[in-house]
Amino acid sequence: MLLKIKMLDIEATDYPLVMMHKEDAKVIGVRKLNRVHVKVGDHDVVAVVDLTEKIVSKGEIGLYEYLCQKIDTSCSFYAEVSLASPPDSVHFIKKKLDGYPLSKEEIRGIIGDTVENRLSDVELSAFVSAIYTRGLSNEEVINIIKSMISTGQTLDIKRKPVYDKHCIGGVPGNRTTMVVVPILGAAGLTIPKTSSRAISSAAGTTDTMEVFCNVSFHKDEIEKIVDKIGCCIVWGGGVDLAIADDKLIKIRFPLGLDPQSLLLASILAKKKASGSDKVVIDIPVGKNAKIKDTAIAKKLARDFITLGERLEMEIKCMITYGEKPVGRGIGPALEAIDVLNVLDGEGPQDLRDKSCEIAGLLFEMGGKAQRGRGKDIAEELIDSGKALSKFREIIEEQGGNSKIKSDEIPVGAYTHTVKSEVEGRIDFMDTRLINMIARACGAPDDKGAGILFHVEKGEKVSKGQDLFTLYSDKEKRIDDALRALDGNPIGVEKVIYDVVEGELTTFENSWWKTDKE
């Protein structure tokens, strides 16, 4: 069928999508979400079909923005449209939904079609749901990892061995990467750190590092930086490491699905694609963390180690406390201030301690420290100023102001401080609600927005004492965040509930007197 092309200024999907009139679709036997061949000149693309009776007329085919960028429509005003079959990978997804294991070739087909944008969001959602309900064997996870690596770019790092660390997430703040990388770099170790932006949190490592310098670099630029100074802290999205994983993350997030087998594949594919040899994985455990039980955390750790061996990576896991934020600031600029303060020998003690534990374990894995001595070496590198000097070198190499001081980092112009209504002790910090409130303030898009805590869990507070301050560049955002405070992100437990006083009562008029004389 020959249809007139209509360009649609609609950015809807990351895969080829066209819009047809319902009457035209009936003629060639196409239903909604079926596929058609769209041939324009020398271009022949298979696209998913959306149907309408209003946006395009009979005899027209609407091309969404993604397809407009892929096809040269200057050579023709018309497209030849015909029915197309779904890719084989759709049948493989149905097979997994039915509970059957997938072969290496079938997994390679699904991952390949994901990268080439041959699968719709509905089909990818079905794949994620199948993994969530049916699970994956270790062999299937390995095949997904290898397929993700082979369909994306890999870093070619000359300086070996390559060290790395990763946190599976779920804890506000926790900006250990930005402390660990300069510590290892100051010791002469190689750590090309690629990180992500925030998905559901108030800031990712990339969002915070962006306060200091550029984070978007191509593969060859990253390799050049690492070859020169031994380390970097960059956005993984600037280089297509395990690109299929990024597409699956987009599907997983709105569904709220994070199956552990995909978590394993996601992390290990990117570590292997980065050339990592020795890796520490941080697994926080807490009520609102991704992992809520220590036994589950230990099993996940064993899976990381076992799969790492299959991929020729040495992996050690740290199971950490995930019931409170790490650091005082939540939000890009506030977390950046924490990082700079820690590297300057000050700053939040919990962020310093955890960062030095991770760096210390990496030193021990690399034979740079005796067992149990790694943390001491990490602390010496901070106290000597060498780690801070290395961090400033990273900032300069990535195009930032290497002389910046913590009090020069701009934060939100509008603030509101919340005070304790009672005397007591901080007995809980709701990490999920903390992230929600910081995002209501505007983080991470508003770099200066977020929450600054003045107290820690377990600390005694007096009535009227400052608990935390909200920051934003927009006054309305502060109001939005205050509305979210109906569920308190921080709980103060009274030390004394009440004092009961009264006159001493005699046995005769007491309530426990019996009727017997």
UniProtKB/TrEMBL annotation:
Per the record, GO CC terms?
A: cytosol
Record's SMART domains? PYNP_C
Does the keyword section mention Glycosyltransferase?
yes
**Gene Ontology MF terms in the entry:** 1,4-alpha-oligoglucan phosphorylase activity; pentosyltransferase activity
Q: Name a single GO biological process.
A: pyrimidine deoxyribonucleoside metabolic process
Q: Give the top-rank taxon of the lineage listed in the UniProt record for this protein.
A: Archaea
- Record keywords: Glycosyltransferase, Transferase
List, for all copies, the residue spans of the domain called Pyrimidine nucleoside phosphorylase C-terminal: 425-491
The UniProt record lists the EC number as 2.4.2.57
Q: Which NCBIfam families match?
A: AMP_phos (TIGR03327), ARCH_P_rylase (TIGR02645), PRK04350.1 (NF003338)
Q: What is this protein called?
A: AMP phosphorylase
